[in-house]
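re the bet — no i am not wrong, look at it urself. input seq straight from the record:
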Amino acid sequence: MKIKERGAALVVALLILVVVSLMGISAMKSSIFSAKVATGTQADAMTFEAAESALSAAYTEINGMPGAALYASLGGGEPLYRCVTKGDTSKSGKCGANNSDKLDSRGLLMATSATKLNGFEPIAGAEIGTSGGSQIMVDYRIAMLGESEMKSFNLSNHHLQEALKMGVKPGSEIQ
């Protein structure tokens, strides 16, 4: 006597295969999304650190300047621009489009700092002479802006920090 086969085992196996395939496709999509999120997070962290590096370089430069050099560099009212590169943390001027102005080895990041004098305040108890060439000790208010850019991801960061720096101001320029 012959028994008719209906193929139930085959149908069940095919259904299991379809379910496993759908789970695999879903896992791949989730993995691709996670990779995109991780890449974006890494790029954002890199631009943040680049802006902080530009600020750190500006602060180090300003901190190392004696009062007279500080006034000579910033007293004209124009910002002092520096480009932070792989080989030079205080390259004069803004960063350009060429690869030598990139901060990282892959050529993705540019970091620039702008330092500007935002006025001064005489130090309490400081005196100014009435003779020619007199000077007074002041606290210079300095604003430093660290900027970074990663064009390939259309990301940028702008960090502003303010500081006080004691220095000498010519008495003839105090009003």
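see?? The chain has one domain: 39-173. told u. also Residues 39-173 form one domain. so pay up
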